[in-house]
Specification:
heterodimer, A: 115 residues, mainly beta, 11 strands, 0% helix, globular, B: 117 residues, six-stranded mixed sheet, four-stranded antiparallel sheet, 12 strands, 52% strand
Chain lengths: 115, 117
Amino acid sequence: GAVVSQHPSRVICKSGTSVKIECRSLDFQATTMFWYRQFPKQSLMLMATSNEGSKATYEQGVEKDKFLINHASLTLSTLTVTSAHPEDSSFYICSAGQGAGYGYTFGSGTRLTVV
Amino acid sequence: AQTVTQSQPEMSVQEAETVTLSCTYDTSESDYYLFWYKQPPSRQMILVIRQEAYKQQNATENRFSVNFQKAAKSFSLKISDSQLGDAAMYFCAYRSAGETSGSRLTFGEGTQLTVNP
């Protein structure tokens, strides 16, 4: 079945630094990947849609200069949290799909803690 | 815009019993897909079951089945013979049938299921 690998699973960084999270589709090509943020006991909040070879589409209220997304190949999308602050601490999840109706496969998530 | 509503923030069930989780949605589209995802404490999102709107037959996957009522825009999940491993947050999700960037998943708020031994 479709597998999406997300790394790192946990990261602690200092305030003001940048952190990169990788999302890879291991056994299929993904022209579109999605990045979510999830707070404890809450639903997933879509941050942006990552499109291979073009600019990402950000949801309203998401700072595109803070959350940089790059989708340089059909199997890799990256989310870089720039100039991280403690309020950026959260659980970030990526997902990718193989086509309409198949649903999406999710990465295992990244717990980001900014100190 | 589509919306998905899960009106039960928490549910509990005794092991081996049956439980039904509710989900309603709002859309003006006629062709779409509905999903139930499970998120255990590991926080890994796992697809439980999917339903294609143009199919009248309710989807089933082993102990999991849905009651899809298209006219009522209702999509409930029934878990039979509940097991301790079923304890998780369950999310109902909607996806348009098109392949455009609009084919994002819209999630409900989630239902936390507890399974009591």
